[in-house]
Amino acid sequence: MMLDAWGDASSLSDLMSARNQSLSPIDRASHLRSDGDALALLWKTAAILPVIDGHIGAGDDGLRFVDAQMVEFLAASFEIGERYFLGQARDGGQAFFAWSTSWINEPSDEKVKFDGFKTLREVGSDLSELELTLAMHAVGLSNWHKSHPVCPRCGAKTVADLGGSVRVCVEDSSQHHPRTDPAVIVLVKDAADRILLGHQPIWPEKRFSTFAGFVEPGESFEECVSREVFEEANVYCNDINYLGSQAWPFPASIMIAFEAITDHPDDAKPDGTEIVEVRWFSRDEMKAAVASKDLLLPPTISVARKMITGWYTAKAGYTVSDLNGGESWRN
Ligand SMILES: [Zn+2]
Question: Where do transmembrane segments lie in this chain (predicted)?
């Protein structure tokens, strides 16, 4: 059965990241990663995104890039940073790097420590497509480099190489590549076109979202969808349909989005640990629950929110503005 959850193609590209439909706004230019001279030249005129302990240079108006001179100036207060080549803009060729570093003498005051810096969760919803692409890449790389300082084969130190796309062991020269952990995320529907959402105890009160979980070794995405939904919400699904994917570097995931149908909506119940409450929503029920603040949807940056909005607006008369609220991570 073809599922008509998304309406026309233009709304699909709005919903899921445009990256699913077309080229990324950034050309990663991987052929330049092995050309140290070219990278050194590009660095001189690059827009550089500083990353300090998972926080990126950002203000209310978006990302705050610095230039190479500013990095030299900042370097006095920070550990020697690593440069990661993020690529070039497709229009005009502007080069982008991340500069990932840590404080030498870490200020105890968090406000001073991260003045001018924000987490991706804080600013993600406010960024343009190009900015979000760069920020996701920079934060994902920085997270990985920071957590892989030594060689998993021999325990010796590793150093960043190939423009920050790998780490290399200084002893045995083994090359180690950034890891991305696949996780499925599932919009569960029933035959009446309602959707099932769950509440995790660590979330703000009234926040409900779709079901998600990491793919385990030896498991297909589809098997993972079935297992996770059954584990968390006690329902078996069929008609599993791929919707799209989104990078999710918190700290190193990619979310692979599916919708699935259950023929047993009345069986839905929470597992009691990961999920403590489940609720079915028709569109009218969702609209009323959002309006009365009885339902807080996931942040707009999240793939979960895009899936929910996609389902909601697929029927005439239901618009995105009905679901306003919950734009940021913790409100
Ligand atoms: Zn080694």
Answer: none
